[in-house]
Specification:
- There is one protein chain.
- The termini are far apart.
- Helix 10 links the parallel strand 10 and strand 11.
- The protein folds into three domains: 113 residues, Alpha-Beta Plaits, CATH 3.30.70; 294 residues, 3-Layer(aba) Sandwich (Aminopeptidase); 94 residues, Jelly Rolls.
- The chain is built from twelve helices and 21 strands.
- Helix 2 packs across helix 3.
- The N terminus is likely disordered.
- The chain has a six-stranded mixed sheet, with helices on both faces.
- With 528 residues, the chain is α+β, with helices and mostly antiparallel strands.
- Helix content is 33%, strand content 26%.
């Protein structure tokens, strides 16, 4: 063998090593390009560190999971990290198998966006200027009861099986896109003949699957909005390829099906809400709440007055003693108490439990992060949910070949939509003004009334004049200088005092001339 041949042969391993190094560098660059920023709760972060100890938090905030004093409420540390696609997939799998829960992280387009989101969530909730807090009264039984009586488990079964027919509904797959189009077509067909109902798709950046939004326009209070949602995507965490089977019958065809049956029954009964109702099938929930995050941020940017949000994510697996579990973390306590009242009123045989699910466990978290009132009713206690989710075995059969459990959620959702949707605009009571003039000798007293004031209204008394006049106001009876609802007794004739009414009632006023005085009394009130 010549020297030249020897040199060439000896160079082969070197050349191969260089080529392999180039390939690895190229692969690393590709992986680097697919990295994503996510925020994760403390338990999910511990799982991530086990599988990828090199992943370090770039920012950490302590979030209050709910209002102080709420059921099962506490605080939680949430971390901002950068992960690649494989790490994110394995994290999702670990959250399901090790923590016995779903979700657990929220996607962010950049490190800067993730830091802004964390700071926003750590700050006290910033209520939108236009945001309305509902009264949470149950006064629409005549509308709710007929709708609930027409709802059927068989219709829910049909929708679950139709969505499960797609090979998978992963957010980047053909099936994911087709499932979005299918839901748009189904909802639009159900709304045929209703000009007040529209169905649109919300496009997202970076993937083809779209969210589906059905809107029932409110009649006389359309600027206030009620939102019901569930996610239309599915995932098989062991294989996210185009042909990987992920039927997602429970997670979350069941939530979409429960919502769809509520919609069907409302349409069948000709229900037309006063507030606007939106039903949303979110894209890309399984990969960091991407669809709901975009939509909630869009609503916040446009100052949309969303008065309540309910998330239906998994409704058909009966795995715990109680029927419906209300999660208490990253949700609104007052609204969740209202939902509990809805259940006990309209489904008295359905039992309620309470639990918490941790950071970003489903799409309601996207709305909570934007300052909206959101709730998450769930099929089981956390840790007892469907063991087949995120696999090829999440089938209707593995939910017990029934939809009776999902029907409970459908009825709850319909009651929520109708009770909140039937409230009109706040009524501003008309104002009446009466004026009285006169004079006092020192120590003289004069009484005025009764003024009949409406519930929710106010009465305001104001005096001007000379000398020193004292003003006393009392609900239900004549005031004295020692018995009154409010008083104003400064050292001049200019006095003012206001009372508010929680029920229709009479209000009386008393004036006392502390010294020789003249007065003009102006009484402004909301009459019955």
């Amino acid at each position: 063998m010549s020297q030249k041949r020897k040199v060439a042969a000896g160079s082969a391993p070197v050349i191969l090593a260089v080529l392999l190094a180039g390939l690895f560098a190229s692969g690393a660059a590709m992986a680097e390009g697919k990295k994503s920023w996510i925020t994760v709760g403390e338990k999910a972060y511990a799982q991530l560190q086990k599988m990828a100890p090199q992943v370090i938090a770039r920012d950490t905030k302590t979030l209050r999971t709910n209002a102080a004093g709420a059921k099962v409420a506490s605080t939680e540390q949430v971390h901002l990290v950068e992960v690649d696609e494989e790490q994110m997939r394995k994290l999702s799998e670990a959250i399901h198998h090790e923590l016995k829960r779903c979700g657990g992280f929220m996607f962010h387009a950049s490190e800067a966006e993730g830091k802004r989101s964390l700071a926003q969530q750590a700050a006290p909730p910033a209520t939108l200027a236009t945001l309305t807090r509902p009264a949470y009264t149950l006064d629409n039984a005549a509308l709710v009861t007929p709708v609930l009586s027409q709802m059927q488990a068989g219709n829910i079964t049909t929708t679950i099986n139709d969505l499960s027919t797609f090979v998978n509904r992963y957010y980047t797959s053909t099936g994911g896109t087709d499932a979005s189009n299918w839901l748009r077509t189904k909802w639009a067909g159900m709304a045929t003949g209703r000009s007040d109902i529209t169905v649109t798709q919300f496009a997202h950046t970076g993937y083809t699957q779209k969210s589906v939004i059905l809107t029932i326009a409110g009649t006389d209070n359309a600027s206030e909005v009620v939102v019901l949602g569930g996610h239309l995507d599915s995932i098989n965490v062991s294989n996210t390829g185009e042909t990987a089977r992920a039927p997602g019958a429970d997670d979350d065809a069941s939530g979409i099906a429960s919502m769809t049956e509520a919609l069907r029954a409302m349409i069948a009964n000709g229900y037309k809400p006063r507030r606007t109702i939106k039903m949303i099938g979110y894209a890309a929930e399984e990969v960091g709440l991407r669809g709901s995050k975009d939509i909630a941020a869009n609503f916040k940017a446009n100052n949309v007055n969303v008065v309540g949000v309910m998330q239906l994510d998994m409704t058909n697996y009966k795995g715990s003693p109680n029927d419906i579990y209300l999660f208490t973390d990253y949700t609104d306590a007052l609204q969740s108490d209202f939902i509990a009242k809805l259940i006990t009123t309209y489904q008295p045989g359905v039992t309620i439990g309470y639990d918490k699910c941790g950071y970003a466990c489903s799409d309601h978290a996207s709305w909570t992060a934007q300052g909206y009132y959101a709730s998450m009713p769930f099929e089981t206690a956390m840790g007892q949910d469907n063991p087949y989710i995120h696999t090829a075995n999440d089938t209707y059969a593995n939910s017990g070949n029934q939809a009776a459990h999902a029907l409970k959620f459908a009825k709850m959702a319909a009651a929520f939509a109708i009770e909140l949707g039937s409230d009109g605009p706040a009524v501003v009571p008309t104002q009446r003004v009466e004026t009285f003039t006169g004079s006092f000798t020192a120590g003289q007293i004069k009484s005025f009334g009764p003024f009949k004031v409406i519930s929710g209204g106010t009465l305001k008394g104001e005096t001007t004049g000379t000398g020193d006049v004292d003003l006393y106001i009392r609900k239900s009876a004549l005031p004295t200088t020692s018995t009154y609802t409010c008083k104003s007794d400064g050292a001049a004739a200019a006095e003012t005092c206001t009372v508010s009414m929680t029920a229709n009632g009479d209000v009386y006023l008393l004036l006392k001339g502390y010294s020789a005085s003249t007065y003009t009394l102006k009484v402004t009130y909301s009459p019955q």
